[in-house]
Amino acid sequence: MSWEFVVLGIFVGIAFTSESITGFGSIVIAVALGSLLFPIPQLLPILVPLSVFMSSALFIRFFRDIDFRLLFKRMLPFMLAGMLLGIALLQVLSSDALKAAFAVLVLWFALREWYKLQRGIITRPKPVWWQPWWTFCAGITHGLFASGGPLLVYSMNTFAIAKANFRATLVCVWLGLNLTYSAIMWQQGLIQPVLPVILAYLPVLAIAFWLGHRIHKRVNERQFKQIVYALLTFSAGAMLLSTIP
């Protein structure tokens, strides 16, 4: 295995530890950092199946924490529709320009919410259309970059969700979407050549699962939100930097 794949393994460990802590962030961080080494189209056939493995483990371990009403009524239908549109748009749009715009949007949201948390500002109720629209947009970004987490967190921001339910429910979204995404890439013949790399990274996922859950148990709700916003800021900043030639 070349040194690039060794470094990518370190990035995978960091990224998937974040998913074990918060329920999201694995692919957006891995794509942002990994794009320093490989083109994004080369990364996705590795990272998306790895996300299926991690999400499956988290799903089995934390099944009782899932908010199924929120999952099937508010999340999955809009995310799936958006993802299919995003996959189609990937063929015709400039991915670097879109990624930069997406990163700026996420950075703005994360810094704004961190400021509100520090100041104790209460989030105002949003219109009925607000959450479905942003969830649909999260699906589009997932189809384009396999990175729908930041906008999905944004869309779910008005709901009072305990950290355990938040993590477990998000994990179900990634499991459903990335199984679909993996099936599409398998049909396209993109996963088969990188199967040895995927299998080589499975021990890294096991360590990330263990470490992330230990951190998750040690933080309270306020600290959990701070971690989420810090993770969003880091992810957006890394993604923005990866678009600079």
Automatic annotation (TrEMBL):
Q: What is its main location?
A: membrane
* InterPro entries attached to this UniProt entry: TM_pro_TauE-like, TSUP
Q: Name one GO cellular component term.
A: plasma membrane
What keywords are annotated for this sequence in UniProt?
Cell membrane, Membrane, Transmembrane, Transmembrane helix, Transport
**Membrane topology term:** Multi-pass membrane protein
Enumerate the transmembrane spans: 44-63, 131-154, 166-184, 190-212, 224-244
**Compartments reported by the entry:** Cell membrane
Specify whether RNA-binding is a keyword of the entry. Answer: no
Q: Which family does it belong to?
A: Belongs to the 4-toluene sulfonate uptake permease (TSUP) (TC 2.A.102) family.
Name the record gives this protein: Probable membrane transporter protein
| Naturally occurring in which organism (per UniProt) | Aliidiomarina soli
- Species lineage, top-down? Bacteria, Pseudomonadati, Pseudomonadota, Gammaproteobacteria, Alteromonadales
